[in-house]
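thought: user wants a sequence for this fold. calling inverse folding tool.
action: design(structure=
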């Protein structure tokens, strides 16, 4: 039976640790791995509003949006390099979520479910709030709403690859 997992990445060290962890499971395998990068337009709009309030011009705001696209392309190359290093087969997708569509975690889970993921993998961040310090809002949302197992990979300082 083919294994199918979906991994959320955003380019952070924690998300890349999750990718490495998933690749150790799929090393040399042709089983299915979907790697998803979510561009949350709500976050971009907040960044644009903050920049505009600070005096940014329309050109600056265009550059901000263009940098998001460039970062996504760069992340795709990083993901491909990691996959090559583990001889691991994967599919990479960048998806965009608009405000009101449920946020990044909901969009990731929706794509993972449509793809038929049997489990989802994400990095666990350490954020200031007590619950967020333990899980992070993205991972906390996944744990609360996913109908498949959720694997939370700890921050890189505590993660050790099986290699």
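)
observation: tool returned 163 residues.
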């Amino acid at each position: 039976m083919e294994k199918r997992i979906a991994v959320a990445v955003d380019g952070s060290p924690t998300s890349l640790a999750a990718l490495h962890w998933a690749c150790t499971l799929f090393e040399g395998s042709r089983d299915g791995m979907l790697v998803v990068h979510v561009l949350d337009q709500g976050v971009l709009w907040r960044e644009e509003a903050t920049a505009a309030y600070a005096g940014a011009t329309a050109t600056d705001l265009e550059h901000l949006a263009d940098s998001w696209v460039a970062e996504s392309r760069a992340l795709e190359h990083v993901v491909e390099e990691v996959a090559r290093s583990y001889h691991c087969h994967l599919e990479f997708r960048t998806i965009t979520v608009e405000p009101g569509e449920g946020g990044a975690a909901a969009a990731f889970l929706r794509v993972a479910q449509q793809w038929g993921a049997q489990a989802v993998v994400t990095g666990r961040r350490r954020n200031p709030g007590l619950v967020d310090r333990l899980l992070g809002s993205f991972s906390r949302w996944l744990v609360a709403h996913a109908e498949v197992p959720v694997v939370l990979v700890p921050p890189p300082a505590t993660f050790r690859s099986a290699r």
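thought: summarizing for user.
answer: Here is the designed sequence. The domain at 4-153 is CATH 3.40.50.620 (Rossmann fold).
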